[in-house]
Amino acid sequence: MSSRPFIHEDFLLNTAAARRLYHGFAKPEPILDYHCHLSPKDIAENRQFKNLFEIWLEGDHYKWRAMRSNGVSERFCTGDATPREKFKAWASTVPHTVRNPLYHWTHLELSRYLGITELLDETTADRIWDQANERLASPEFSTQGILKQFRVTTLCTTDDPADDLAHHEAIAAGGSDTRVLPTFRPDAALAVNRAGLFKAWIGRLEEASGLAIESLAGLQEALRKRGEFFHERGCRLSDHGLERCYADACSESEVEAIFRAALSGKDASPEEHAKYASHVMAFLGRLYAEKGWTMQLHLGALRNNNTRLMRQLGPDTGFDSIGDFPQTRALAAFLDRLDSENALPKTILYNLNPADNYAFATMLGNFQDGSIAGKLQLGSGWWFLDQKEAMEWQFNALSNLGLLSRFVGMVTDSRSFMSYPRHEYFRRTLCNLIGREVESGEVPDDDALLGPLVRNICHENARTYFGFAGK
Description:
Layout: H1 16-26, E1 31-33, H2 40-44, H3 52-56, H4 61-69, H5 83-93, H6 101-114, H7 125-136, H8 143-149, E2 152-156, H9 166-174, E3 179-181, H10 195-209, H11 216-232, E4 237-242, H12 252-263, H13 270-291, E5 294-299, E6 301-302, H14 307-313, E7 321-322, H15 328-340, E8 346-351, H16 357-367, E9 376-378, H17 388-401, H18 421-440, H19 447-466
Parallel strand pairs: 1-2, 2-3, 4-5, 5-8, 8-9
Antiparallel strand pairs: 6-7
Helix pairs in contact: 1-18, 1-19, 10-11, 11-13, 12-13, 15-16, 16-17, 17-18
């Protein structure tokens, strides 16, 4: 058995070139986390986590899925077990996650946050729990302390257009070392197929905008007004979580009728929903282009597949999958519609189905217009694809069909303040892939060529692309 800890300075770096690229060019770069689901409230209040459960397991559906697969009762995932009992149930699951990315993430996070190099299992659980909780009580492990510790220069949260952004205003006024900006996430504006939820959200949007919303034009005016409100508070990105793009032909009168029916409590049919969503997404794309924002499209998730547990536990509890939706024809039509109007904003396509990687990568090239480098981006692997193998799939698709050198890099896409080592994991995977090809002779062994490429992907490309000056 090796005396070297599992997580060591050359973890995942299997060649001399990989080690040189990582330590010399990737590791020194700060983090620009342009898409996450961290709580602005927790950052504004500089939350101090009471124990390892609160910072590590609270709301983590990745871990819950593994625990369920290991035969752990729901009581220890989302139920009424104590925080310590839930942690110990997770600890007993960890040895069974070998070759699952959770095994890497778990030990990276224990090492990088807490300096703990022991492997987590049933025998070490109590000791690690006590060590971790003692360290978490120090100021460097408050939410703002963590962001400073991991050199996060800017992060963008995910926010509903009806949000008052009060927490963002408090963060800005409080002098945080990390710039925290909102992201415009108007998924609820498309939900005419769930009329009850849609109507309730329209009420919230009316209150936030100060406008009565009784027509499609009223909705568009309210979204435009909220967009301006977000822009004034530093927002430069939008985000959409969609099964697929929408580009169905429809008339203004059809969309108006669908909107009014939903306001009256009638769920739109799938065909009506597609027509309505096509119209609203085209409007939003034009709005983003006007404001110089980047449009993010997260495509391909099949959500809430377990009806029984959805009813019992609610959404975002670990019952979602990769969907096999037809993507390319509607995606092409959506992008082409905006491009033909000279209204296609900077766009990042995040693909959840690896079968579509090459299709998405080729789609990008159809709409690059020479106005800026990498105007359309193949986003980093997300959700089920934010692990080593799938990151390499994404790198390879982008490299073969576009320009890896213009890639804007990794995001945490996480609700957990323990997720920042995922940037390290991404950077090590990138350097290992390039280093392997240096050793095989497929890429020049030239730091003057490869060093800037690595450094730019890790930070500088994103800073330039989004226009985040300063930090």
